[in-house]
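Two quick folds needed for the group meeting slides. Do the first one here.
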Amino acid sequence: MQCTIGRKLALGSGVVFAFIVLAAGFSFYQLRQLATTQHVVSNLRITVLTATWDLRSSDNRLSTDLSNYILLAGRNPVMAAEIKQDWAATWAGIGKAAATLTRVRQDLAPADAEKVTQLQTLLPESRRAQQAGLAIIDARGAAGVPDALEVLDKQINPKASEVGALATDLGSSAAELMQASIQKMDAARKATIVVLLLSTITAIITGSVLVFLARRWILAPIVNLASVIQKVSHSRNYALRAIPRGQDEIGELVAGFNQMLVEIENRQSQLEHQAVTDELTALPNRRLLADRLAHALAGAERQQSTLALLYLDLDGFKLINDTLGHSVGDFLLQEVAGRLRRRVRASDTLARIGGDEFTVVVSNLRGAAEAEVVARELLAQLDAPIALKGHELTLTASMGISLYPDDALDPEQLIQHADTAMYVAKSAGKNRYKVFNAEFGDLVRERLELQNLLRGAVERGELTVHYQPEFDLATHRLRRFEALARWQHPTLGMIQPGKFIPIAEETGLINQIGLWVMEQACSEAVRWQSVAQHPVQVAVNVSTLQFFREDFVAGVTEILRRTGLNPTLLQLELTESVFVPRLGNSSKIMSELRQLGISIAVDDFGTGYSTLSYLPRLPLDCLKIDRSFLYQTSSDSRALIRSMVRLAHELKMNVIIEGVETPEQLDLMREIGCDEIQGFLFGRPTPDPNQYLLNESARQAELLERNSETPAHSGAIVHS
């Protein structure tokens, strides 16, 4: 198991500390031993020197005392007695010195110990010889002096000389021992000093190694880490990395910091990607579009080629988003993005720059014709229905095209002109494209002006309601009037619904206008009942924004209460795009309306969805077939109308056909079996429907007779 930095440093420090302690202990022990040895040697030297000194001095004194005693014994007995006492005392000292040497003999060198042994043998012999000389004097007095001197010369003095020689040798040995001890002590002291020096040097070297390792293991990585932190802080460059190392604490710290940088770098990349990418569709957003468009324009300028900016806006997306919910809207946007992406080249840029707005930058074109080809192909990508909750929704788009260098030279103006062309395409009927023209600016300004003027038009009394009649095809009886909003501006004159109704839907004013039209129509219908010979209904169109408001049913109920109109005389017309995507909510709202007695009609039937499965699931009273089917003269078109009529009758619903303008169309509808008709053949929208209410039977008989006499090929239309 690999040690961590702390353990390594602790182990190293412990080794150094232990080594220093051992060295200090060893040195202390050596010094103590030296001191002890020095003390012992000193004591031994002193003892030996003292003992030998005593022996030499005592031996000399004995010889002197003994000579004096022999010479004075006969002449001065008193002094001789004192000398004898001194002799006895001297021998007592010699005995002590001999005993001392005997005691330290084991500490002496073998040769010196042998000399001490010889002294132990020689001293008693010397004493006996001296006692023999003293005994001669004591026994014979002065007469014995010659014999005593002979004993002194032959026995005592040789013995004394021998003792002195041994004492001198022992003294010399003691001095030599002391000198050797001093030399050993000096050598030991030097060795101790060397040991201390080596210990110190080793401690310094080991400490330096530890410092080096600490710098390598701790300080260097931390300094590197601090340096990287400082660089990252100053440069915001999260691609920098600290130098990696092992699995210890510093290594884990460095690895953690590097991992943090990786996460920050990934997060920064993610944020940078999000900053230039649309989150929903993963397409470039407006910011990235501006950058790529600038580069594309620079390339087009270098290559002297044409660049096209296509600005695409989905038709009716706001209604879908408001009625079906944002989740469905998001799904549609993703589907549209996927379809457009399949057509766009890798060198082109497809971007989403707004809610339902997309742009395509197409480079390396030879002219506007190639840009129009791309536009048609992109619109064709949206032709296929989109499967949505069991239904198929048809989605269209309006597109504007601006060209470099023909229309603009900078990105901002290029986008602005493409946006202008897109609004012109939308105003022209949607589901088409327009190439920018300088005159388009006037059209856009007109649209913006209408948008501003429409606000407050109801309060200013500029809106009116026109009524177009609908007749029973079998009895020619007037069944109802369809209420249609009209805008009569004091300076601009009559503004057609095709211009201001889309603006009202985009701005949300449609709810206010729709409720106002409904109340005006209901009030007018109440007056009709007092004039007409039979009940006459009024039909009012309802937009998606109105229908799905929480207070819609309550608002209709309140209008009926205020106007006093019988609910059975009110028919609400809804297009398929209003209720089909949300059948559950639609069915609930329709059921509440029908419980009030209000009838429900499907307006523009056959143009919104390719499925008919919703018909049995909704409480509907009438199908109003779109006028576009009458404009098709093929047998397939007639068969399709006949099938729709048959289906409606099977479901117990009446059928109204819109747009009847010729007697031939009238005869065809009678043959097919339609129940009711509406069109210019019987009457245009009018603000005063009284002409249809008075003398209704006679008027309609005359009208039908005149229409039947009109040649088929003339295409004549009878206007009321």
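Then this one, please, same format:
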Amino acid sequence: MNLKKPFKKAFTLLILFQGPLFVTPIDKGLDAIARKEFSLAVPQLEKAKKTMPALAYYGMAQIFSIRESGYYNLDSAYFSANRSLSSWDAMSKREHSLMVKRGILKSDVYELVTKIENLAFDSAKSEATVTAFESYMNRFPANGNMQSAIHLRDSVAFYDAEKDSSAASYLAYMNRYPASEYYGLSKNKYHRLIYEESVDPSNVKTYEVFVRSFPANPHVDEAWQFIFQHLTRNVVDPDVYHDFITKYPTSPLVGESWFRLRESFFLLYPDLTLSDFNKRYPGFPEIVDNDPGLFGGEMVLLPFQSGGKWGYMDSIGSVVVKPLYFKASTFTNGMALVGNNGKFGFVNKSGEEVIPVYFDNATAFQNGFATVAENGMFGVIDRRGKTVLPFGFDSIHYSHGYVFIGWRNGNCQFFGRDGQTLASDAFEACGMSHVGFAYGIKGTSRKFINLNGTLNFKSELRDLKNISSNRFAVKFDAGFALSDINGNLLTKEVFDQIGAFSYGLAPASIDGKFGYLDSMGRTRIPLIYEVREGFPENAVFKNGLAVVGFTERVGVSTSNGDLILTDAFDILEILEDSLVAAFEGDECILLNPFTEKRLTKISIDSVGPIKNGILVFKSGGSWGLMGSKGNVILEPEYESILFASNGVFVVKESGRYGLVDINGVVLLDPIYDQFHVENNRFLGMDFSGKIEWFDTFELKILQPVYK
């Protein structure tokens, strides 16, 4: 009997029906994946690639994308998933039948591709290097994470340039990433470093070379100011300024030099005439001759009072606008708010009422706009008097020179500088978290808005704080996280507080301990230091140093995390000029933290700012001045001392203000109600509703002179 024929027939039927006694390699492979037996699945799927490529490559992509499989390789996973997709439309009926049987759809493969891209992106973010992000972008082109990857690549590259902090590093960054959002910031830093690397404060010729070599650098004006100050020393000597004009005829400070020249001339020779001046110094510019208050390229006008009314005088006391008004403010944006008989308008520096005294209420101009009221309702106008935001609001607040917040009927809305709404919603409360970032509150909901729309986060925000030009501390129910400007979270929401960035680092705290994060959210200095009262403001780096410590004793850390001050003190204050004020009991030690050299030891309560080598200090409950070596310049006898301008300090005694100079000499007795600084030169000293203007260059009070 021939047994081969019936056996062959039975085997053929078994293949046709594919019953439980016969399992194909693709079935074995997919079933092994389900059981997580990946080493058994791989050889079976390899066998099935020729007959069932769509299913086989899909299975291989799954294995390659599982970290615990032993075959984890995202490049192989990405290749296999895309190979599965490319084989999909050409699959056999048999493969399609098995797909249907197992419930596998083409959309499942697309989801797997997205999963692989996200895993690769997470891996690149974990490594957080330029190489990692660029590798990701090259290996996984045209994926949904591409824009975020580009942003993070640019952020890391910029951070690397900041670590090197050289002009060459920023130039290389700009050349490599011309479309980066950090291009402008890199350009600014590049120009600044070119300036700093080119000049030497002990050699004025280096500044001369700089202005010739880099005429387009934005710090050229700063260099010219140094040259001007170095050569003239602000002396009252017309020949000194004439020498400057002769030596540097193309300098942008020639106009200021002419002004100082004329001012010095008439201070030295008050009995001479303008004709005498022109004979000795011919060529005086007509624009300065017509505008004697010209200073630093802009005419400075100061309000003064006479006969109960207000007018304006220039910086040498010449009356430009006669006293005509019952109210007069200082100039902003070339306009000053003036008022008569309960109405308000604006004058320019020629004394012309360019916007008539008509409005019921008004605020000074800010960035080209002013809020005004008519018939009890507020609107916004520009410098031409054109209405930007129509009258119809109960009140309007112009925030950060960027956004108008208008209130009416108890609700508020946001408007741009063009008067258009930035968000259609009306809120119960409105405010600003940052320039261009507003928030509106409605019930328990808080919405964050910018000119590009609303920032979207995965859950509802409780707060948003700007802590650098492109980083935010965002608060959720669980805590604070670090976010970039596009709303991408760079850390988990685990922090109790995150402070402002300084020297590339931001203080962050968890459970009473703080350390420092970099701009990518990585921990650069471990969270091991005790949080003290005033955190996080008191932990921000100042002059490259921060106060850190354990329990009640503190020390100093550099931005690299190095503890450079080994002694522990009760209290430390970071000052300027690389000095630290260290307190032990009631004694203060001024020292250099890098060398730990102690400059002086004095008995004082606390210290204030240090300016021009002069330290404000407190002893016995009163404030005085001392040099950096501990020499007392002004005995502690005042309620407070503030640095004002050009070596002049404001002192307060019995609630009233006066002035002293850098040597502790009293310039004005403390008899004034309040003060303010104008143009970084003039101090407005208010007394019984009147203002006396003190010139910190000439150290005298200006008196109005009528021509």
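Slide caption for protein two: Confidence is low (pLDDT under 50) at residues 9-21, 286-297.
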